[in-house]
Every structure is written in C-alpha cells, then in structure tokens.
C-alpha cells in the first residue's frame, strides 16, 4: 500500500484528541493555527498574513504519529 506523507507546519491550538471508533478504528483530531509570511521588498521587512485555524482528522495507523 502506498502512503502519502504530508507535513503540516503551525502551532497546535489545543492538545490532540485520540479516540477509537465503535468499529475499532483509531482517529486523532487536532486544531492547527498557521500564519503565512512574505517578504515585502519595498519596505524591506517580513509581513504576516491572516492567521488561519484548521481542524484535522487522521485515521488508520497514522493517528499515533501525531504529537
């Protein structure tokens, strides 16, 4: 089976929640906040964009790879 690796960069908003569904599948849910940055050459400084908060769910064998 081919697995896809995804790297998420940001700050955890709260502790990840590990749980098991009624059929025995492992699931991890977590919220991540990230803020994009770009360099403004006209002002010679870094500028932050709008912070976004996302909810992610991971299932299968990968939930235990979440911090």
TrEMBL record:
Keywords: DNA-binding. This is Single-strand binding protein. Gene3D superfamilies: Nucleic acid-binding proteins. SUPFAM superfamilies: Nucleic acid-binding proteins. InterPro entries: NA-bd_OB-fold, Primosome_PriB/ssb. It comes from the Bacteria. One of its GO terms (molecular function) is single-stranded DNA binding.
